[in-house]
Design brief:
single chain, 410 residues, alpha+beta, three-stranded antiparallel β-sheet, 17 helices, Cyt_P450
Length: 410
């Protein structure tokens, strides 16, 4: 719905959601929604109604109030943003990790400062760039760099062979589809990967303790080391690994693709980062604020009647946090429409969510992006988009805004 159509329906418009799937242009509805209807009723992909929250302050309220539940979005009979194609045990991944007593092991695996991780990531990034240079441009930066680099990180963190990265990333194309109705093979796809990680767990157990690697290596010895873990099953361990790989790899790759695209559309910023590598951490935070990869909002179910701005949200209603509304809110950010790599802290964007479900891998995600972008601008200073931006093909029916390909030259 265009801004003009919005202005013609002043009585709480029923918008169709999600908004535009293009990830390099802020949807034109965002500013109108923040100003006129920061809690607006929308119709989701499934035909259900939901409340779309587009201001920064109200978005934070939703994310930080435990009465807005993520876990309950997987319940039967609740309104949905799209059909439930992700198994319920995956939706509440961190809740399951905490309840099973696995939090310490998971957080240790997600620590970007663990020995050798950053050096290995830099080496992998360099090898991927070597392969692109050898092939010669134009090349697809998503397939040739963003996807394998993101997979490499998560393969190392989990302790699975990087040689399997294509098979694992291909599964995400089905795992994170957004559909109007459930389809049977979405579950088959998830459980296929559970089987894969269960096999990798068994392989870790067959190794000497000193040769076990990653989170699965830790899981492999957990029952032996901790009698209180005896009730944990290999299926549970594998489901945790599937969840972490899926959510992590799809998020880091999508962010990296859109971050590079934002820089390619402003070539002077590539030169700035090459000249000022010390600014990379702050630049990554600004690119996170700017990023439009989350195309369907962050969902929560209200567990009580809760006042949200001028709207009383009723128990059982669906609330969607519009990140591109919150992260471009002029009440929270000075000149939010400018991609400002010199923006100073605090850059309190909501790219990693908030409250109980703040992304546990936020530090790892930042490190991943800093290394990737640092290697790219250093090795390929003349990197450019090889096709007009309007010719990029944006994926539909997917949890992320994502171009199918990102052709580049240098």
């Amino acid at each position: 719905m265009s801004t003009r159509q919005l202005e013609s329906t002043q009585e709480q418009p029923l918008l169709d959601f999600p908004l535009s799937r293009r990830g390099d242009v802020l949807p034109e509805e965002c500013a109108w929604l923040r100003e006129k209807a920061p809690v607006a009723k929308v119709r989701t992909l499934t035909g259900d109604t939901a409340w779309l929250v587009s201001s920064y302050a109200l978005a934070r309220q939703v994310l930080e109030d435990d009465r807005f539940s993520l876990k309950d979005t997987a319940n039967a009979g609740v309104p949905r943003q799209y059909a439930l194609t992700i198994p319920p045990e995956v939706v509440n991944n961190m809740g399951n990790i905490n309840s099973a007593g696995l939090r310490n092991a998971v957080m240790k695996a997600l620590n970007p400062r663990q020995k050798g991780l950053q050096d290995q990531l830099r080496a992998t990034a360099g090898e991927l760039i070597d392969a692109l240079v050898a092939e010669g441009g134009p090349v697809d930066l998503r397939a040739g760099f963003a996807d394998p680099f993101s997979a490499a990180l998560h393969c190392q963190v989990l302790g699975v062979p990087f040689d399997d990265w294509r098979r694992l990333m291909a599964g995400l194309d089905v795992a994170f589809m957004t559909a109007r109705e459930p389809f049977a093979d979405s579950a088959l796809n998830w459980y296929k990967d559970v089987g894969y990680f269960a096999q990798q767990l068994a392989a870790q157990r067959d190794r000497p303790v000193e040769e076990r690697t990653g989170l699965l290596g830790t899981f492999a010895g957990l029952k032996e080391a901790d009698p209180e873990s005896a009730h944990l099953t290999d299926e549970m361990f594998a489901t945790v690994a599937v969840s972490l790989f899926g959510a992590g790899a799809v998020s880091t790759s999508a962010f990296l693709v859109l971050a590079v695209l934002a820089l390619l559309q402003r070539p002077e910023l590539i030169g700035y980062l090459r000249a000022h590598p010390e600014r990379m951490p702050k630049a990554v935070d600004e690119l996170l604020r700017w990023n439009l990869s989350v195309g369907d909002g962050l969902p929560r179910i209200a567990l009580a009647d809760i006042q949200l701005g001028d709207v009383l949200v009723r128990e059982g209603e669906l609330v969607l946090v519009l990140l591109e509304g919150a992260n471009f809110d002029p009440e929270a950010f000075e000149r939010p429409e400018v991609l400002d790599l010199e923006r100073e802290s605090p850059n309190a964007h909501l790219a990693f969510g908030g409250g109980r479900h703040f992304c546990p891998a936020s530090a790892l995600g930042r490190t991943h992006a800093q290394i990737a972008l640092g290697v790219l601008v250093e090795r390929l200073p003349s990197l450019r988009l090889a096709v007009p931006a309007e010719n990029l093909v944006w994926r539909t029916g997917f949890i992320k805004r994502l171009p199918e390909r990102l052709p580049v030259a240098w």
